[in-house]
Design a protein that fits this description.
The chain has 129 residues and is α+β, with helices and mostly antiparallel strands. It has a single domain, classed as RutC-like (60s Ribosomal Protein L30, Chain: A, 2-Layer Sandwich), CATH 3.30.1330.40. It has two helices and six strands. The chain has a six-stranded mixed β-sheet with strand order 1-2-3-6-4-5, with helices on one face. A hairpin with a 4-residue loop joins strand 2 and strand 3. The longest helix is centred in the middle third of the chain and has 18 residues. The mean pLDDT is 97.
Length: 129
């Protein structure tokens, strides 16, 4: 088991790592990412789910790259939204990161509150080829 931490994604705000690699290095479990600027730790796009979704995806991409995997290697995501009315906007941005024919399995749920009162959080699992 190994840990992944990159300066190109927000520093964890608790006792966790950005990602954990398990097995013989073939499974990568990414912690949930929210819309934090990696340089400042500040929330990006207050009240704007589109801006927050873009930042979340950028943060995930930074962790994936640090683990030497790409969007093509993501097999499962979980999307947490503070309001399911934001689903269509999130989904339009989210879809830009995945090839339709190999898009990962996904769950999407509405939650009552997210850290720092952001509108969205996404975690994922990737496999190394």
């Amino acid at each position: 088991m190994g840990t992944i931490n990159t300066k190109n994604a927000p520093t964890p705000v608790g006792p966790y790592n950005q990602a954990i690699v398990v097995g013989k290095g073939e499974l990568v479990f990414l912690s949930g990412q929210i819309a934090l600027d990696p340089a400042t730790g500040e929330v990006i796009g207050l009240g704007d789910v589109a801006k927050q979704t873009v930042r979340v995806m950028q943060n995930i991409e930074a962790v994936l790259e640090s683990a030497n995997v790409s969007w093509d290697n993501v097999v499962k995501t979980t999307v947490f939204l503070s309001d399911l009315n934001n689903f269509a906007v999130m989904n339009q941005i989210y879809a830009q990161y995945f090839k339709k024919e190999i898009a990962p399995a996904r769950s999407c749920v509405e939650v009552s509150r997210l850290p720092k009162d952001v509108l969205i959080e996404i975690d994922c699992i990737a496999i190394k080829p």
